[in-house]
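ugh ok fine here u go
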Amino acid sequence: MQRKRVLPLAALLLCAPALAGTVPAAAAEPQAGPAPAPVPAAPLRILLTNDDGYNAPGIRLAFARLTAAGHDVTIVAPLTNQSGAGTKTSNAPSIAVRHPEPKVWAVDGSPGDSVNFGLSEVFEGRAPDLVVSGTNFGPNLAAITNHSGTVGGAIAGLDAGVPAIALSTGGLAAPDPVTTVNAMGPTVDFAVKLIDRLRARARSGLLLPKGVGLNVNHPVIGADGKGTPAGVATTFQDAQALLKADYTDAGDGTWKVGVTVDLKTPARGSDVEAVGAGKIAVSPMNADWNTGPLDFAVTATLLAGLRP
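structure:
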């Protein structure tokens, strides 16, 4: 069963319009009203994590630019690359943690382990204002999202009641290392703008509705990756798998594994459609496994009268 994290857009419409290059017609009306208050002077306390490892270029760039924007940022991230770890958390009796430099903690575990350690120990007694996970090397779109360690780190924050944003950099084609790393700069610059918008709209309240996080996918634009996206779209997670595994029997009890992009026509308004059009996709997500009311009702009808 596919994990569903899509939320109705209504709760986020007040956040999205001024960021978006194109906005759904239904979002136009909530735009009316007074201009947002100035961004509060007090910096946000941010727990920064990822799945590529604490020393990966994406997280280091995010640390530098979020800090330059005035935020109090602490890295609590995996010691080694944990791509594809999803929402995994360890149940071992002990875990190794290094503190190689000020404001940096390296946890020998998954992104979820890192966030849990950070909330319990590094931010003990006072939770951070925000968990930011990324920016990831490559996109986290469609069903890839379900297995993403980047998104898993954000989900760990939501599980603990802390607002969270997952950041990923990449398009629908196989990632090129140089252009993807170049595009991480625009990704983090957008994240700074996004956080400023949330702060301004939140005023003294929550940055995001309770239990809601954002999965942000920034495309790679231009031959050098430094181009400007065509706009911002508030999206939902496309249902397609996007990646297809291919197994080849090596004849010795092992199988060679290959993965190819299996792109189908994206759903209208989805994250895949937006990134394919060169736009930044911002998808609201939550941290539970519940289906919608209609799916629940249909399932209840199917199970009616069943006995052990």
